[in-house]
Amino acid sequence: MVLYKLEDFEPSYRDTFEGQDIKGLGVYTQGTDEKVGTVSDVLVDEEGHFRYLVVDLGFWIFGKKVLLPIGRARIDYNVDRVYTIGLTREQAENLPEFDERQTLDYDYEERVRGVYRQPTDYPLPLNTSLDASLPLEATAPVDTTYQQPVTPTYARDNYTYENEPSLYGLNEQDNQTLKLYEERLIASKRRQKTGEVSIGKRVETDTARVAVPLEKERVVIERVTPADAGTVASGREADFREGEVTRIELHEETADVRKEAFLREEVRVKKVVDQETVETQETVRREELDVNSGNLPIEER
């Protein structure tokens, strides 16, 4: 049977107990109300059941830690205390010291259980066997000639904690709990689609106008009277030539318009999240304690 520290087995165990922590609670004897020590840890089995409280016996035996079976403890969160059931100082001295570095095997636990086990307080009638509900290996031989107090013995191979409810069973008589429930509103969010935005491109046409200045050549003929008009020309200058032609080339500019594509702008599309607070209300129920004790005194803590 493997045992684990409570926090190693379940790191979030405080959430299970609604923030309450058994570690650190003071340990007192039941009845005499004498402080024994404090709870330094809890050991659980593979299924998470409480099996032992690790008690630091600082008020009885300085520096010694021992194991207290959960069936011999009563936890009272109202006063933040753990009460031991039937633990004596002599038993505390006889208990083997707990060392978290050592392995807790069957032999070690048997040493612990051997201290807590008590023989039958009174002899059984002659020729009477022990409780038939106990397993055969848990039944000690019965001396029918003279009935002495006996202590059950157990086998290593098939021992279970259920064999000894006095050590490992919760004492329901001393640990009665009435749970009061209340309803709370648990707010959650659900994401749903509200619509869709489609963004695309289309081509539109427009008439663009551009002004282009053009040059066009033309011939201008000017006929003027020279300053030496009327003078006699020399023979060479007066050489008449029939059919003489002067040619002048004329040019003009025409508009040559072409189209080019230019980047006009960029369109960036993104989503932004706007937040708003929505309040809702609902009727919740809560259980309240109704104590009817007649004339009996009741102390509420």
Explain this structure to me?
Mean pLDDT is 80; it is low at 120-149 and 173-177. The chain has a domain at 4-117: Alpha-Beta Complex (Photosynthetic Reaction Center, Chain H, domain 2). The protein has five helices and seven strands. Strands 1, 2, 3, 4, 5, 6 and 7 form a seven-stranded mixed beta sheet that branches. The protein has helices at 6-9, 13-16, 89-94, 106-116, 165-168; strands at 4-5, 26-29, 35-44, 50-56, 65-69, 73-76, 81-84. The longest helix has 11 residues, at 106-116. It is mostly loops. A hairpin with an 8-residue loop joins strand 4 and strand 5 (65-69).
The helix content, as a percent range, equals: under 10%
Instruction: Estimate the mean pLDDT confidence.
Output: 80
What is the string of SSEs from the N terminus onward? Answer: EHHEEEEEEHHH
**DSSP strand tally:** 7
In one word, what is the shape? rod-shaped
Largest sheet features: 7 strands, mixed
The CATH class label of the domain at 4-117 is Alpha Beta
Helices, by number, come to 5
Low-confidence stretches: 120-149, 173-177
Termini separation: 39 Å
The CATH architecture of the domain at 4-117: Alpha-Beta Complex
CATH topology of the domain at 4-117: Photosynthetic Reaction Center, Chain H, domain 2
Strand content: 5-15%
The whole-angstrom Rg is 54 Å
